[in-house]
């Protein structure tokens, strides 16, 4: 028998303020039509003034705890995937720990930008299968609205704020791919691509900085690398696109989502899509889509789910799990 990391609960939180595409028409030279047709985005949520990433994360965490029927002190480890932590340190994860009233366990952040939640799942899985933690709360939370250059139409129309959370719990398994839990992980990064997606601020500049992106270049890498990593993760356990019930992709652009599904030979009615409502919420997009997909009745117990994401670094990867 081995240990496996099994989904115990899921939840999400979106800030109240919904910003439709039309609001950007008075800010930059753009149109609702351009944003919809080039990205699939129709609206996004923006955090209120003073509302931080750890606030959003704690709300998503409470929803996941309620879904799992667990108390905060039932959790051994909190992992927050984010590039927009409230402060340089301490981690957003320890702030969430305090906000939840946890008096035990350990907490840390994972920074792999849009691939952060996939990296977070990989870390949680490693903690669980090695016996270091029995229950891990993995959160993706972002306030990318705080990184926008509001004069750059190529980026400011694409991103949104939000948080999603998943609770994983150790369960005994004989090792069958029919058993529930995380089945396979495939991670990559290539730091040579720093200049196509980065924030031009940090401790080296003394400013928070703004997101800079060469959209077309990132798009090209995404279409190629996402299908590749998803295939690699499936291949490790002898499965293919035909076995997949749901792709739950990073929600950056509907055209990337469609191209990846096509390369995997998975029809779009087996892809959870939320990009129209959330925009690109970076590390939060996959757990948001998992939670929304679950509440829509799309993802059911026993379903084979593939998550895949790419972002700044470049960093990318995929996780296959049986829900
Ligand atoms: O989450 C991390 C990973 N990020 C991504 O995966 C994002 C990847 N990239 C993309 O999603 C797409 O490349 C974008 C949505 C960013 C852009 O779409 P595109 O089809 O690649 O457009 P483009 O960058 O090639 O730009 C086409 C035209 C340009 O005008 P010219 O040079 O052809 O005259 C842009 O200046 O569209 C122009 N443009 C806009 N026009 C109206 C760029 N942004 C806008 C805008 N409104 N907001």
Summarize the structure.
This protein is an alpha/beta fold.
Tell me about this structure.
The protein has helices at 32-39, 53-68, 92-99, 116-129, 153-156, 215-235, 254-263, 275-278, 285-295, and strands spanning 2-13, 17-20, 43-46, 77-81, 106-110, 135-143, 161-173, 181-189, 197-199, 211-213, 246-249, 304-311, 315-322. The chain is α/β, with parallel strands linked by helices and 323 residues long. The protein has two domains: 2-173, Peroxisomal Thiolase, Chain A, domain 1 (3-Layer(aba) Sandwich), CATH 3.40.47.10; 181-322, Peroxisomal Thiolase, Chain A, domain 1 (3-Layer(aba) Sandwich). The strands form four sheets. Strands 1-7-6-4-5 form a five-stranded mixed sheet, with helices on both faces. Strands 8-13-12-11 form a four-stranded mixed sheet, sandwiched between helices. α2 packs across α3 (92-99) and α6 runs parallel beside α7 (254-263). The longest helix has 21 residues, at 215-235. The chain starts with a strand and ends with a strand. The mean pLDDT is 98. It binds oxa(dethia)-CoA. Oxa(dethia)-CoA (UT7) is lined by residues 30, 34-35, 38-39, 114, 153-154, 157, 215-216, 218-219, 222, 252-253, 256, 280, 310-311.
